[in-house]
Amino acid sequence: MEAIVTAVSRSAEHNFSKQNQPSITLIEGVGVEGDAHAGKTIKHLYLLKKDPSRPNLRQVHLIQTELFDELLEKGFTVKAGELGENINTRGINLLGLPTGTRLSIGENVIIELTALRNPCVQIDTFQKGLLKAVIDRNEDGKVIRKTGVMGVVIAGGKVVPEDSIRIELPAEPHQPLEYVW
Questions:
Q1: Does the global pTM surpass 0.85?
Q2: Residue 181 included in any domain
Q3: What domain range is 94 assigned to?
Q4: What positions belong to coiled-coil segments (predicted)?
């Protein structure tokens, strides 16, 4: 299966969910044009209070659409943009990619993956019990965060649904994505 973009979303406000769009424009070193999380320094409200000077490693939030399929089997209905993501994908295991992976999207856009997204308690306000459904543990007891990955924009441009995604892994040794505030 080819890796593709299935939906794109943004919100100028710091809301839990983002509105689907026909396209979004990514700006190099900043993020999604018109999105509340765009900027060279951190824009996440909780993290902003801790240190507003930190570089923004959370410029773009991506979630694999396969998560929604899994959640549907558990009784939850979640649609693109509702968990606050900017880009939904299909055909790519985002959570299994190493830190520094570059995703080339469409003709021009390049996003470098920086971290896992940590699901917060607001997710249970959106749908009761959803937080537990998006957190798992592996056989070693390590927490598995399923709510997507974060990245920075290396090369900007327009992203639309059905854009193809190409994966460029970083040099070895690979480091797994971790939650980074």
A1: yes
A2: no
A3: 4-168
A4: none
